[in-house]
Amino acid sequence: MCRFRETTFELLGGVTELNFNLLNWGDDGAVQLAVVLPLCAKLTRLDLMDTQLGDKGAAALAGAIKGSGVVKKLALNGNHIGDAGAAAFADALRVNGALTELALRINQIGEDAKSKLQEAVQGRSGFDLGL
Q1: Burial 34-72 (b: 16+ CB within 10 A, else e)
Q2: How many angstroms from the chain centroid is the CA of residue 90?
Q3: What is the CA angle 88-62-17, rounded to 5?
Q4: I want to staple 82 with a disulfide (CB 3.0 to 4.6 A). Which of 34, 108, 129, 130 is the partner?
Q5: Contact at 8 Å (CB) between 36 and 11?
Q6: Which among 109, 57, 65, 110 has a CA at the least distance from the CA of 91?
Q7: What is the mean pLDDT of residues 95-104?
Q8: Pairing, β 128-130 against β 45-47
Q9: For the chain, what is the radius of gyration of the CA atoms?
Q10: Cut 0.85: pTM above it
């Protein structure tokens, strides 16, 4: 399990892209990342593919981006995100106007939850929703 420190992310305040693919953080790592994510004021792209996160981690990340201008592109392919995590992102997308790309391929999201995500971004020109 990884532990983030706020001071670490304050030092990364000017970073625009972070790639944590394949680190097997799981939900605990995603929850910790969600707490410090707002400190990365210039972050535009966050890659968390194949990090073993599930609904709890997805909900934490969705909460961090809800109403935030942080992160424009979020890649979460190849995780264990199910309907509850997808619902959290659908809720966040109804409020967040900054996110322009959300990749959720190769997860465990059902058709109803996929429809809710699609409805949440309906009418947002240029939004790339990868399901």
Answers
A1: bebbebbeebbebbbbbbbbbbbbbbbbbbbbbebebbe
A2: 11
A3: 150
A4: 108
A5: no
A6: 65
A7: 94
A8: unpaired
A9: 13
A10: yes
> Tokens 């699609």 belong to which residue?
118
CA pair distance 115, 16, nearest whole angstrom: 31
Higher pLDDT, 7 or 16: 16
Residue type, position 21, single letter? N
Q: How many helices (H) and strands (E) does the chain have?
A: 5, 5
Strand order of the β-sheet with 73-75 is: 17-19, 45-47, 73-75, 101-103, 128-130
Distance CA 125, CA 105 (A): 21
Please give the structure tokens belonging to residue 12: 């990364």
Query: Which pLDDT score, from 0 to 100, does residue 102 have?
Result: 98
Output the six-digit token pair for 88. Answer: 């959290």
What is the pLDDT averaged over residues 28-40? 87
